[in-house]
Amino acid sequence: MGVERRGAAIEIAQLRKVYGNGADAVVALDDIDLRVAPGEFLCIVGPSGCGKSTLLRILAGLDRQSSGRLDIQAAGWAVSNAMVFQDSGLFPWMSVEKNVGFGLFTRGVPAAEHAARVEAALKLVGLTRFRHHYPHQLSGGMRQRGAIARAFVTDPAMLLMDEPFAALDAQNRAILQAELVRLWEETGKTVVYITHSIEEALLLGDRTVVMTAHPGRIKEIIDVPFAHPRNLMALSASAEFGRLKLDIWRLLEDEVNRARAELEQ
Amino acid sequence: MAESSAKWRERLLYLISPIGLLLVWQILVELGFGDRRFIPTPSDIALRFWQLSVSGELATNTLATLWRVFAGFVIGVVPAIAVGLVMAMFRPVRIFFDPLIAALFPIPKVALMPLLLLAFGFGDASKIALVAIGVFFPVIVNTYAGAANIEKIYWDVSRNYGASLWVMFSRIVFFGALPMIFAGLRIAVAVAFIVLVAAEFVSTKVGIGYMIWNSWELLQVDSMFVGIVVIGLLGLVASALLAELEHKVVPWKSDAN
Q: CA-to-CA distance for B240 and B222, rounded, in angstroms?
């Protein structure tokens, strides 16, 4: 069974991001060339400080590149992107329902449609019973579900996810990963997913971008050959999965060691 | 069961210190420590309280004071919150207001009373203006601090999800600052009573402050104490109402405590 792919196409050429200027300038991203096809699930792994979050913020329009070209083709989509953050970012002063509907509220979606879409999104992530709860009354996993619902409900051309499950315990992470893959298989949207876990990148994505640190560059892009629908548990136990994981670890190992050596100097 | 009896014990403990203090006071004065003309007993004060209540004098004075506090509070707090939030959203606004606040905040507000009498006369307006000025500063400073310390992720989310400036102001910055706004309001309640009673000492013929000062001049010490007790009670009730409101409006903070 194939996934019907749609969503934004992304083209990045010679993109560079520098923070500060003069002698204090820090190059966060350098020489980034990347094309993402509509409906692709792209994962980006790299050591901390490789600028992967910066890249995502630039894609989200929360930050601007210093130079280079970024072209997002999202014609026909009302909402270009929606981001899911590591720390859910649900507003503590809004109920789950209000949080999930936030992106519809800001865009003035009519009340009846708003209610129907929020209803569907809550159902999708299993939070219907908790719609009137406030975030502080939910577990970390449920909060993250709320954040995912808030992103999906806007029907964005691409989903930008910044280590959304990094703060969860292993079991919750596994459950939410499976749910995310299911959601993606149903919607076929473009996803750019940042993670520091090789395993997660292989489980979820079509391709994995491996980045280097200081400055953040693309070291290699690896095709992930696993077919959909995926059974994540079975997949993670397969021999090919293990082999790919080792390949990527070897690529990253140098980078991690280099980054550590730089820190210890 | 054990839990509720522990709760009752706490409530009892809460009442023991004020009641005990009154008892000791009563006994010491009855035993002849101090001159009863200048230091009335709690029972003398209670009797006077009753007499002033029946005559309607107490109600008149209390209502006058309450009206001034309420009007001044609203007039001072609303712009303080609005300007505090805008300061946090727009740097130029903050830079514009910062020196004004830094210079005016430390001025004892009671020192402005003669000026306000010149401007607004001896009626309610001058007292209301003083309360408004008094509450403005603690509220604006707390509102700004609360709004400026809203976590970055909430700004990011609202920008990423297409929030207009008005939505950011009314749904994000305001609510994000609410816990600190309430901290400011608690201070403001106390400040309101402090400056108002001082103003009522000299510039009016009605109000609890006037009652306290006038009783002192007439050496009616028991009436003076009644005034002091009433101010304390009003402050207590105002704080309790504010705490109740906070619990309703800021559930994500007060539930955690």
A: 27
Burial of A5 (0-12, 13-18, 19+ CB in 10 A): middle
Count of domains observed in chain B: 2
Q: Specify the pLDDT at position B257.
A: 45
Instruction: Respond yes or no on whether the N-terminal peptide bond of residue A38 is cis (omega within 30° of 0).
Output: no
Same domain, B8 and B86: no
**Whole domain around residue B6: which residue ranges?**
1-34
Secondary structure of residue A44 in the 3-state scheme: strand
Q: What is the ipTM of this complex?
A: 0.89
Is the same domain home to B135 and B209? yes
* Disruptive mutation site among B154, B159, B160, B175 for chain A (greatest number of A CBs within 10 Å): B160
Contacts of A94 in chain B (CB under 8 A): 171, 175
C-alpha distances out from residue A40 to A35, A52, A198, A247, Å: 10, 18, 18, 22
- Higher-confidence position of B141 and B1: B141
Domains of chain A: 7-77+158-170+188-265 (3.40.50.300)
pLDDT digits (tens, 9 = 90+) for B171-216: 999 999 999 999 999 999 999 999 999 999 988 899 999 999 999 9
Same domain, B49 and B61: yes
The answer to whether B61 and B200 are in contact (CB under 8 A) is: no
Q: Which pLDDT tens digit goes with each residue over A20-78? A: 888 888 899 999 999 999 999 999 998 877 889 999 999 999 999 999 999 999 988 99
Write out chain B residues lying below 8 Å of A148, CB-based: none
Output the pTM of the full model: 0.83
